[in-house]
Amino acid sequence: MDNSVLWQLSYGMYAIGTVDGQRPTGCIVNTVIQITSEKPVIALSMNKNNFTDEAIRRTGRFTVSILSEQTAPNVIACLGFSSGRDMDKFAGDVFHWKLWEGLPIVEEQAAGYLLGEVIAVHSMETHDIILARLQDAKKGEGKNPMTYQYYHDVIKGKAPKNAPTYQAAEKKENTWVCSVCGYIYEGDLSQEPDQWVCPICGMPKSAFVRQ
Ligand SMILES: Cc1cc2nc3c(=O)[nH]c(=O)nc-3n(C[C@H](O)[C@H](O)[C@H](O)COP(=O)(O)O)c2cc1C
User: Which CATH number fits domain 175-210: 2.20.28.10, 3.40.50.12780, 3.40.630.30, 3.40.50.12160?
Assistant: First the structure.
């Protein structure tokens, strides 16, 4: 079986928002799809180790912020590489967000927003397939929804192991990986000025480790 054929599947980029009690929490996924059009149902694939999975299962509701090409990459760095179990991702002013029907949505040029109520969870080995009935939907300010391919090819971003589409990077000579967001720098990092920072998450050169 040639698993690399799976790389030909297309995806988008989404921020999932929910609450842990009163506290907003959430994460990045690339796996939201529309399943039915009448009384629309959407689905997403959520790693069972993600805190967002726990929180959605408890509250039974979540939002989807459909990220656009104009969305700042630090939204992805903040929501996609650390866990709400260890930190408050919505604290501070890393990105703009607000509550919609009591759940957080990302305001950074999202192309649109969906509000879902969980109707079924199908548990797989590593991931829960969460099915939700659409409760509301509204447009955002962003123009071009960000595809997963754009994230990889233009922003040069990576996905962590919890993403269902994770692929281990090929080892290459002189390759440096950002320990926070997984951004890959190819070449001689020491040639960059001292004030150089990761283009995705803004970490300094010292956060990079040789692959
Ligand atoms: C580009 C990208 C795509 C991702 N796609 C998914 C996904 O589809 N499903 C998933 O469970 N996690 C996905 N992740 C990983 C989660 O966002 C990540 O594990 C996050 O730290 C979970 O945070 P939490 O523990 O607060 O829920 C993705 C991350 C990135 C950066």
Answer: 2.20.28.10
